[in-house]
Amino acid sequence: MSFFDPEQEDKLKEECGVFGIYNPDGSAAAPSIYYGLSALQHRGQEACGIAVCNTNGPKGNITWHKDMGLVSEVFHEESLDSLKGNIGIGHVRYSTTGASTVENAQPLVLNYLKGTLALAHNGNITNASELRQSLQEGGAIFRSTTDSEVIACDIARERTHTSCVEDAILQTARKLKGGYALVIISPRKLIGVRDPLGLKPLCLGKRGDSYILASESCALTAVDAEFVRDILPGEIVTITENGIKSDSRLIEESKAAHIPHAHCIFEYIYFARLDSTMDNVNIYDARIRAGKALAASYPVEADLVTGVPDSGLAAAMGYAQACGLPFALAFHKNSYVGRTFIKPTQKERESAVHLKLSVLSSVVKGKRLVLIDDSIVRGTTMASLIRMLKDAGATEVHVRISSPPFLFPCYYGTDVPSNDQLIASSHTAAEICASIGADSLGYMKLEDLKQMTGDLPLCKACFDSHYPV
To answer: Where does Mg(2+) bind (predicted)?
Structure first.
């Protein structure tokens, strides 16, 4: 069964979102995880799951529930009531490594020589095949095709000759290459790990005596928790009944090896929710600044500025503010279309775009428009939107994109298509402009990305091929 969202078909997709909580007062973790995952649903819509444990119960008492679908589809009152435990983790998935099957849904739960372990992972491990082979040669048997299971199995193997699970996690993290954010529960501990590059986000929150780990701060807000700080690149945090403890050994080793930080630029351009703050950068403000940078680089005579819902709206507001043009909504988004359970033809895909978005004709008729979006991947959706605007009476449509052109694949957990599906890899901006039917086209300049995120060190490999690993 394949899931298709017409608005998302021509967008990049993130791998997933993770959430973990420890309630030392013994209260149920599952309801908070449910709400946290709901707030992270934008990071993955294919599958989701929750695993919990009672820290006051017998060791090895991890229970879980996971399946294909949205959080609201997979979990109901009965399934949440069955998850008894005050410590737990959750996951929403979009697959980049491993097929879209229930076997690959997370969290992954292992029973091994030293006990039990549950793990949820956001990111992509570039040396997963090498690690998998080594584990298989040692007798490991895999039930899924994900790199996440490679991480979990390696931790289990390392745990057989370390004094605690944190040391096993450190030994495994030393081997991993790529981007990852992990939340892990053993029977008495909640542990969070962030890759030394800082490619994947992870933050810490607090609600009363409870500690929370999440991919984005918006998930903390959803459970009425206070944002404490971002987990540092390379940091391992352990939360127990005694509070929180930070392990900086991987940080120090990364510094000694001169490993730079490289935060994924697309979190700020597109992936993160508008109400999140990530590594001290407010996402909404960053996108407003992106729009202002576009206006400075690509001004045009027009009547109004609009954006593609929802991802282009904040940058469109920034563009309008900078150039003194009015901002208006040109599209109505139908939020109740849902996902179709077919693999669509191109014609069906184009029809689905019309189903998801409709033009407000009274807004655009007779107007010269600046249309802002965060990216052009294949170009198919943008071409459909421009046709819709012109059919509704827009006299000109000038497209501005708040990211540079995609030219190279991503290996760290972002689903960038192969080069033959990236329109910018084989066409000039002028050719793309003609192909999509725009009156002009301007991409964010690579050097202007700093205006979005300040001095934050970035991974921009999908734009410039400078891979941090």
So the answer is: 311, 373-374
